[in-house]
């Protein structure tokens, strides 16, 4: 669809009729909704939740979502007309709009930012400036002096009809091509317009079938055989088709036909003969729209029978749901929480509702989806960022139509258009992966799911072996229900946890690189018994940094205040914050020495060294670098499940909910780096990581062992991990947080001031902190302070932490005062170019 920018509807005749207006959510960070006039002939077509096309400003054409329809014209500007309606039915539901508004209000962002995050790209419309020849310009007759580059543009437009700015740049192969476009506009040789195109396209396959008269007419098929007998290649194709589509048994089978690729991919059949049969009319070729998520026709498996403990947990959950909307299932690793989830999903579907099953990592969906697909089949949809735009759009439409009654997804799945939601399951609810950091909205999917359930009258089940302190507090105070599962499923026992003192081993010189003798002996024993091992190292790459042995030079990121990590694969140095990378130098740029050494270790180095130490072992790595492709997670997990991999080395991805029955040993390589971190959640997170990764060992009745390598085995947290004593951790943490005013006793908002100039960032933060202190009080505002990593993407950072008591504080009013202070800072002339980010409930 193309529209010139001077588009306008003709004046409407003066008759008595209702003039309607629509408030729309534009995909822009605007603080307010914008109002457009609905042309009379579209009065019945424009609906709340549907997409419409509008012109915003003098040049931009955008698609947006209708939020409200009314008869009140805007007081401050003349409303433009809506240009077109894209949807026959709304693609965003009313409960969704309420949720989006809550997200914008709670997380201090705009509705436009929420819509941008919520809608799959394929459901948003692209708009870009395009160039075409002026309708009145005739290159053959108009005598206009043109530069050589302008002639190239005119000739290209004659061939292509329309081109983008990028196309022109590629054509001329120069940077300063805009001046030639401007010149041609002034000479009235070209015009610029906006093209808006719907990105979503259904998946289409080419199919073939026999022409109808060959299967309907009596004796026609026999006659066809006689005709093709002299042409054996074409006869082979016909026989092959009839073998796959036995029309002699049922002529109706021919209507569906088969995919053309079934024949063209057969090396024994001639592709040219297939095309010849199509040209002769023997075969018909047609397009068919198919789902990107084909229906699994294999027999459904019934959910496995629950054990006595699982059945008791399920009954307790359903009992608590009669009184409370939210329940925590606190089950030790391997207790069989997933089977309880499946039974509860089945119960919800029998009641006619929809279910959302949230997971913190894409890696987890690979295992869970396989299990759920066997039970729920075509009712199951999957939603995460590794899917293409069109695949995500198809899931969106499938949820809207009711095709998908169960959806498994990561945090973005909370945006899906559920309309009959009855149950939300948030597995591994403690995980920080549920929090979105950048860009806005900086939402937490767990909290958003709770609000989503509230708006739709659904129940929420949170599950974890190591709940967040805030969640457990809500259970202890009676706000939420609590169900515990303290035994592993079947004959399985919790693994034995053993601390390995790496300081002592280094003194005895029994360390082999980063592996203690105990850990290496343990790995070798498991490999001899054909058992599997998981090794956890909470840092990817080969080494955190490199350094010159002579002058101590360390390569730094040119955009961020961090050292560059060394990645051996690709032989390059990378910044894990902005993505900057450069080739690994052969000598020191500072002193010229060739003694560059890698310092520390990451997953890549562990994998590399283990292959040298244990050459017969099959070692695989699972981290951000090895899982960039769409199906990488599934392949790595499948290889490990099938026994192709003996040792799996990974980052936090290997700690979360994965279930491998042959894993009998887990090694945590550098526990101290996780514990000693400047954050009030450091001990909570360390405990969660250690217990979660330890829980991968000893499934299915096989005894498990965990080795934790540390230089200080006397740290108190290790005793809690060894005894699996969550209650002790909770009591200690809740007491500390009460004493020093941290969540759950206060709400926290982190305000980050960013600017390219260090002094400007610092001064702006000081001014903002003073204003916030005046508005909120001295006790509520901490800072500003310079964070540990003080520069990211060439912007200097200063942070202000705001603590708002949960009692006697109007949260909406407080957030309004914070937003007001930020807006006032933007208006000060000394702070042009400043950027301020408010992060509600930072993790």
Low-confidence stretches: 1-10
Structural class: alpha/beta
Strand content: 15-25%
Give the biggest beta sheet: 7 strands, parallel
- CATH structural architecture of the largest domain: 3-Layer(aba) Sandwich
The helix content is 25-40%
**CATH topology type of the largest domain:** Rossmann fold
Per CATH, the superfamily of the largest domain is: P-loop containing nucleotide triphosphate hydrolases
Radius of gyration: 32 Å
Average of pLDDT: 87
Per the principal axes of the C-alpha atoms, what is the gross shape? globular
Estimate nothing, just give the exact number of structural domains: 7
Total helical segments: 27
Total strand count, please? 35
Output the strand order for the largest sheet. Answer: 15-16-14-17-18-13-19
What top-tier CATH class of the largest domain fits best? Alpha Beta
Enzyme class: isomerase
Catalytic activity: ATP + H2O = ADP + phosphate + H(+); Couples ATP hydrolysis with the unwinding of duplex DNA by translocating in the 3'-5' direction
Protein name: Replication restart protein PriA
Family: Belongs to the helicase family. PriA subfamily.
Describe this structure in words.
The chain is α/β, with parallel strands linked by helices. The chain folds into seven domains: 2-90, no CATH class; 128-198, Arc Repressor Mutant, subunit A, CATH 1.10.10; 212-281, no CATH class; 308-485, P-loop containing nucleotide triphosphate hydrolases (Rossmann fold), CATH 3.40.50; 496-540 and 602-734, P-loop containing nucleotide triphosphate hydrolases (Rossmann fold, 3-Layer(aba) Sandwich), CATH 3.40.50; 543-600, no CATH class; 746-840, Alpha-Beta Plaits. The chain contains 27 helices and 35 strands. A seven-stranded parallel beta sheet has the order 15-16-14-17-18-13-19, sandwiched between helices. Strands 20-30-29-21-28-27 form a six-stranded parallel beta sheet, sandwiched between helices. It has a five-stranded antiparallel beta sheet with strand order 3-2-5-4-6. α15 (389-401) links the parallel β15 and β16 (406-409). α1 (94-106) packs across α16. The longest helix is centred in the C-terminal third of the chain and has 19 residues, at 758-776. It is globular, with a radius of gyration of 32 Å. The chain starts with a strand and ends with a strand. Mean pLDDT is 87; it is low at 1-10. Its EC number is 5.6.2.4. This is Replication restart protein PriA. It holds the Pfam family Zn_ribbon_PriA. It is an enzyme of class 5 (isomerase). It comes from Pontibacter fetidus.
